[in-house]
Amino acid sequence: MNTVDQTRELAAFLRTRRERLDPADVALPARRAQRRTPGLRREEVAELAGVSVDYVIRLEQGRGLRPSAEVLEALADALRLSEDERAYLFELARQRPNRQAPTAEEAGPLARLVLDLSPLPAMLLNHRFDILAWNPEMAGLMMDFGTLPPAQRNSLWLCMLHPGLRDFYRDRERTLREGIADLRASWAAHPDDKALTELVDELTAGSEEVARLWALRDVRVNGRGQKRLRHAVKGPLTVDYEVLAPIQAPGQRLVIYRAADAGSQRVLDAIARECA
């Protein structure tokens, strides 16, 4: 098979999605006369998407257009694309969808999975590093996130600015540097996310240490590693962490901690007993 010609595939994909729809599927009035070709007319897609008919024609003919993210969103809505089809459309057009980061209320099945992972400490983050869900063991290890204002339930804000966690990370410099490198990667991947930009501004304005490390422009997505921690009561421990990216929830991260040695396991076991 030849490599993908994305312009031609985009054109063919849009045509097939249009042809599978009936006017009744998109609340358009039924046609007075049946056409020999199936699906919606280009004029109907253009009307639903708020673009010109000529624009739809040129897209379907593969005439070298690169639609904006806003136009792609409108076309995806008009053509009633599924989430997977929408992602495919954006990939073909070399664009990123304008998606809002999920909230704690939208965490859904993954929030339940976080609880099911007990006694392993676990939490669910979005691409801004907001903490969407956590289990009792993670709260017992770090702090009770439920007592914090929602704006502070952010793993990077807590790591970098919360005074109660300043001594929590025994390798603070390395932890900050890795966190900022991960934040920069997410910031570049979501250039239109105003809330994420505001988080960067708050972190760099709130700490000279963070501002210095941000200026280094290090980039690294942290999917696996080790953290040396210090629990406020039970003392030092070391955990291995794993970050999983759920296929059905783009942008979310499931973070799981495991003890790195026998002593650390005893600390986590003690925390788990207190949470039971």
TrEMBL record:
SMART domains: HTH_XRE
Pfam families recorded: HTH_31, MLTR_LBD
Database matches in Gene3D superfamilies: 3.30.450.180, lambda repressor-like DNA-binding domains (1.10.260.40)
Coiled-coil positions: none
InterPro entries: Cro/C1-type_HTH, Lambda_DNA-bd_dom_sf, MLTR_LBD
Recorded GO MF terms: DNA binding
Residues in HTH cro/C1-type domain copies: 32-86
Superkingdom per UniProt: Bacteria
Signal sequence coordinates: none
Protein name listed in UniProt: Transcriptional regulator with XRE-family HTH domain
